[in-house]
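Tutorial handout. Part one gives the primary structure; part two gives the three-dimensional structure as tokens.
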Amino acid sequence: MELVNYLLLRKLAANLLNKVFSLKAPLDQSLEEFLKTNSNLSSVQRAWLYEVCSGVTRWKGVIDFVIDSLAKKKKPSGVTRRYLSIAIYQIIAQEKTSSAKVIDETVELMKQEHGVESSRFINAVLRNFLRDFDFWKKDFEEKSLPKWLWIKLKEQQGEEWVKNFACASLNRPENWLRSHPSFNGDEFKSQVESGPFEFCWKVTQKGEIKKISGYQDKKFFVQDISNQKLVKDVTQIIVDNNLERKALDLCASPGGKSLGLAWNQFKVVATDKKSNRFNKLHEITSYSSPGEIVVASFEDIISDTAQFPLVWVDAPCSGVGIIRRHPEIRWFRTPKEVQQLVKIQSELVNMAWKKVCPGGVFVYSVCSVLNEEGKNLIQNNLGNEEVIKEWFLSPQDIDQGDGFWACAVKKQTSSQ
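Part two.
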């Protein structure tokens, strides 16, 4: 059995978390860069760092509330606060880890680095929290979201909904795969569990996804179940309306929707307004047959007169629907940024609508559960058009996918 130096891991985790929160850096990107720099770490150590750093980020609101409530005279900062945060997260969420051991390790680390007095302070805070753990649990849901987001979602969706959303957002998301229709590997099926519809699979084995059978042959790709559901349903809408399977994916990167449509026998033109995201699009074309996905520049697509039976805009948004997967988003996003994003989304909707051929379908989606980015935006921009389907998906749903709002709008044959 591998002997793990948890004192060292706590130091590493504290340094990584400090970078994420001081620089407002994406957690997954920071983790990836950190693990490359520390390539000597074992798989057990890497897994521990990933679990703890993502968990502390996800539970940050609760953890900060606990720390500030228990340390009223002097609010801890810097590395002291990070060590406390890691320990409190472990006490809350790691049921198989001894809370006494967590406290002892944290106290010892503080003693080594900052002396006896600091270690006594840490010890008092953690033991008081552990002693009154049930008292603190009542605040977990509301404190797991920033105040502005809790209030807004409560106003828009109701108290019961936002409580369920907040609770679900404290959990790690499942990993889902979309397989190619021709792939039928027995070894693959032993490593996954079938999802609620065809070609959809839930990862059941621990470890890296690239070790799952079929990965090297590009027989599947990672795609959340909510995204898969949208692709499946949109495909059926095109079939039901007897439209040609030809699509323009206007905000395509990283390419999952384009590939999902291509594997559903669509010819797809994929582009993105941000040119620095084109590498992802070119990479995803290697999963498809030649000509199924064509990557084109955004400017060329918009200036061209060509129209499409299906135009899809998965718009840049606040991302509050994917805060389980990217937990730092909830702490970095602001109401002002949401207002700025709404302007960009409106511009994209009106731009994309012109690319839909008469009788065609326009699909708008955002990984957000805020009305101003979803149904209100479509009402304000395409209020006179026929919405033929709406989706409102959230992590507390049965299959617990990412949060999305989307709609399909039919363009009348007389429209231009």
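Part three, for discussion. The mean pLDDT is 94. The first helix runs from residue 6 to 23.
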